[in-house]
Amino acid sequence: MSVINNSGNHPQFKRVLNLRDLVIYGIAFMTPIAPAYIYGYAAVSTKGMLPLAYLIAMIAMMFSAYSYGRMAAAFPVAGSTYSYTQRSINPHLGFFAGWAMFMDYVLVPLIVFMVGASYANALVPAIPYWGWVLIIAAVITFVNILGIEMAAKTNNILVLFMGIVVVIFVVFCIKAVIGGEGEATILSIKPFFNDGSFATSAIVAGAAMACFSFLGFDSITTLSEEAINPKDNMWKAAILSCLIGGIIFIVQAYVSQLVWPDVHSFSSADTALFDIAKVAGGAALATVYTIAIIVSTFTAGMTGQASASRLMFSMGRDEVLPKRFFTYIHPKYKTPILNIMLMCVISVVGALALPASFVAELMNFGGLTGFMFVNLSVIIYYYFRKKERKFIRYFLIPALGFLICFYLFINLSPLTLKVGFIWLAIGFVYAIITTKGFRKKPPTMEGL
Which residues form the domain of 290? Predict the structure, then answer.
């Protein structure tokens, strides 16, 4: 169990997570079965070339994963994007980076509560949607209160199950294609380039949407204070989880496209991969895939809730949020129980009151904003402040990461941008109040 050492003025987490735990944690947050959440809409948006959009998104995320790893190596503390921007660029700007990512972390467990409850209700309609929301919330919150070690062990089992289901799904799709379904050939360039329907704007929009599936590799860095050898393992875990997750997404999208080439003929865009699963493996495969979707809500929900609670812990420790509440540690379980409970309440209320499509649209705003801040942090901290003139490592790679994320950011929907900037405006007002018009500098973390 993750024990807190209360020596000194600030509580500290026990280091118990190895490289494998961290990689699995990131993949669990992204969930191996993530394409099922967006496949129908994204396939239509990309005109049947979602594998290409996933490839572009993966490459884009690799740049940011590198930057997250570099900053985690420099500052192995909880807080992730917030901590890196605060220490590398400016304390006030760090608050806005954390504020943007905070929205992202809050929305992850919220949307998986929605998705899990919807599919669970379809599988067992005797229990209403709201009942499933409460059941999922109770299980996830209970595991996180017991401690990060318990969550890590649970994730290992659930991610293995989802991985097996994904492999079964891919095998059945390949078998169906070889048997004459869809394209009737396992080798085709169309999922990556279809000359008859290719449009750069559609692929870019699809890549921006595909980033949704990658939101999670960055959550690994919020566990820096609980990682063994964080300076070496954090950057490896960020890159590995992003790469492995991307390959898993691309393969699923590729075989799905081969089985069902006409992306406009799904019975419902919400359940596109279930239509494909039925064609590839019948009702049994569709049922197993449904169960895997429900399982994915537990893995993503646990990691999302854990990451958000630790981000709040870090911001509370810096007195950007009320310290007494947000840094409270349970005397027995040694976890930030109040933060975990707060996340549970927010997620349950949101899952019962908001539409899933609206929540999904907002997630990329926070994620891409955070990625841009971290890429800038690498350049400013290493290249300018520390004067490590390694152009490719500390300037070119993070600069490309920033530019790619910015390009995807400006291609988000107008509604997403509008609501996202309203969220930032609320944070701006809060910052003015708490810092007395920015005259009071937010406390800087010790141990620089």
Answer: 4-373+410-434
